[in-house]
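Form 7-S
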Amino acid sequence: MTTLQKRMADHGFESNDDYEYQLRCLENCTFNGIKTINIEGHKGRRKTAFASALGRALAYPNLLYYDFTQKNSLEGKVVIPPSEDEHGIAEQPVSDFDHIMSESCAFSEGEQTVLILDQLQFADFKDHIRIYHFIKSCEWIYGDNKLKANTKNLLFLLISEDSLYHSLQKCSFRVWINNVSSAHKNYSPADFDLYDDVLPVMTTLASVFDKLEVAPTHSEYKNILQDVHYTIHTEQQLIHSLYGWMEGIDRELIYSKAMLPLLTQVIEQIQTYHGVDEVVIGE
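Output:
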């Protein structure tokens, strides 16, 4: 597990997939605007979990988040600009979106800042265009206000269930987040502080994972092996442990007749591992 993987796991996003290379590509880019990651993937909130964990793993002092499905709530907020100008003309209240964009610019002036814009498919198309111009010019404009962002300190993370506006896509680096880990790890007993006598159990479990088309993360596998030691005695119990600890398991498939022979092989190896002798009743 790389340093980035470990830090992201510590902040709630564990995956066998490593994203250090993608970050290096972004860091090495000579683009003069705001460095931006377009986070794509299967539908669901795993992309949001990735963005949040990445922002925290980078240890930036400021992590800002805006979801375009949330309703504007101005209660308790300082309205910028003032509600009336010097001529007594009322100003329009600042939207939550403009407020978070203003904050990101302000924070970036002195400290590293991550801004996550989530559920962009619900944003007005005009806002897509505004975001694009902001990434290019580093200036956020609303009303008569113009704020400047520091490109060295600000990182933009965009999340949308639909394809991004073309111009936005062209000025961002695209990262795909699977709904489960796609990279398979060849774990050994030593990875879990176990002896090699558990290897036959792990070998038969690998066949089950291949059939289910899933790849357990380290913590998922650790929990499963814990159950191997203390609680799994039947195929049904094995199913409960696998489904209970792992993301992405097809419930219908794991309960299907096609899986039973593989599950039985695992149980047999678990019995051998524990030293359970098979008793045959007969002549």
